[in-house]
Amino acid sequence: MEQYRKTLVHTLKITMYSMKMFFRDRTAIFFSLFLPILIMSIFGVINFDEEVNVNMAIIDEANNQASEQFINGLSDVEALKIIEAESLDTELQVIEDGNLDMAVVLPKDFGTSVKDQNTRPQEIKTYYNEESATSVSVGTTILNQALDGFTHQVFNVPYLFELKSEPVASKGFSYVDYLIPGVIGMGIMFMSTMGVVGVIVTWREQGILRRLLATPIHPSTIITSQVVTRLTISVLQAFIILGLGILVFDANIMVNLPLTALFVVMGAIIFLSFGFAISGVANSQNTVMALTNIVIMPQLFLSGLFFPRDGFPQILQDVSKYLPLSYLNDALRGVMIDGSTLSALRPEVIGLSVWILVTFFAATKMFRWE
Amino acid sequence: MTKSKPILSVKDLKKTFGKIKAVRGVSFSVAEGEVFGLLGPNGAGKTTTLEMIEGLREIDSGEVTVCGIDAKENPDSVKKIIGVQLQSSSFFDKLSLTELLRFFGSLYEVEVEPKKLLKEVELTEKAKAYIKTLSGGQKQRFSIASALVNTPKVLFLDEPTTGLDPQARRHLWDLIGKIKKKGITIIITTHYMDEAEVLCDRVAIMDSGKIIAIDTPDMLIDSLIARGFKKRRVEKAANLEDVFIDLTGHGLRE
Fold this sequence. Notes:
The structure holds two protein chains of two kinds. By secondary structure, chain A is mainly alpha-helical. Chain A has two domains: 2-47 and 174-366, no CATH class; 54-155, abc type-2 transporter like domain (abc type-2 transporter like fold). Chain A contains 13 helices and four strands. Chain A has a four-stranded mixed sheet, with helices on both faces. In chain A, helix 3 links the parallel strand 1 and strand 2. In chain B, 35% of the residues lie in helices and 25% in strands. In chain B, strand 4 and strand 5 (69-70) form a beta hairpin. In chain B, helix 3 packs across helix 4. Chain B starts with 5 loop residues before the first strand and ends in a 6-residue tail after the last helix. The model of chain B has no long low-confidence stretch (mean pLDDT 91).
């Protein structure tokens, strides 16, 4: 009994020292904390829901009262950025260079050739940038409306309809909300897989491992201390990102710490096992990098970290949903965005459990110290 | 040959790596309190022999007994009572010397007094430093301190002075002398003959995986002279290293 207590105390001490080492390691801190926060900051600033802006050049050949009135009317439209230009040729060049969405030419007799309601419609020529389809279609719609309005004004025709738009408050789901569970998963993957591989390979190369093996400590104690350290840090890391997301990035997410911690630990076990398996088969720094990238890269891009997997081709969707990071992301999003309960996330729990079994088995088969 | 019951005995020890026979039947025994040197050129099998005794390498065949414990059957029990300083091994770079000593204490499940250990190896002022800020000599001294955390009965030093300047070497010799005075048996490998002459009570000379001579340094020298050996040049009363030490002093440069 006394012996067990002693072993436990010293195992805890060893774990405490391995945590100390982690917190003093700037590279480790960067990958597990600053990288996720950095990504959140970058993507958080970009607003993907932003309204479309249209850069429109108007060549006013008419230069009369009607054209002036028309241009003034357009200037009031928020989405339009009107540039009054002199020559069409210059503006066509600007479009070619990609700095202008469309150019409109108001002909010399703009608004003056109108006699009565039977007059043939006057042709207004627009030139547009093929590459900016969205801006052009918005610009064309606005232009059509403005011309229609002008017609109504001239002939004094009453409007039959008036569109009234009323905003409905939605749940306020924003991109940052989507991003937070994703970067938590990414941070865990980096910290666990890259962290373990880095530590074991460094220990091996610097002869630290041999020095440890020359003591009576059982290697499993060293592994246990590493695993406990990294599981603890994973949960801590997830909570820090969560907190920063809510406080700094104003994220609107549901906080369920026990369930978040459960999935974080499940994910961390999978990625730690990957790490131990890789450090068992890789001898040189180069093989280590290659194998780590094979594990990390596909998950980084295919697990729906930054964008939903719905946008992928069907085959890719069917395959990528089985990735461990996909299960982790889906589970964390379920908890944080939909407020799902554990029973609602059964597919993710099963998926993660299967991966835990597979990778743990691989790690125990493949890992070796030297 | 041995004054008392040997604390370490090795009988017909063998190790093969693939086709290379690294150790080919090595036998020797070391008495308690003795400083025993394993000498030999690089690749003679010194380190492999030590590693088998230390439990770091499996023993292909032969017998190793440390303090009555069979090293082949119970390598972990042997590890508990020996101290090991390995050739070119390092320590965690993010722990201070004090923390490292406590950490190593936990590996042996013992409480350590870092201050006392660091004082013994004259690193008191480096207690809070990281290993990477130490000089070569300081690193070796710390490595010895880490090998003493479990107050071992036998201390293994594998080429402890390789790469050190003459001052640091002499300093380490003094330290090894102090450890010997405490009654700890020391097994040391080196390829500096002057070092072996100063430190070792007995030496074994190894070549190509075998011990080719084993005795006290004095006896080995005498028997060589008895065989009619003459130096090409008569030794002067001092050598170049004496000149170097005289000019640069005994003080450590670190």
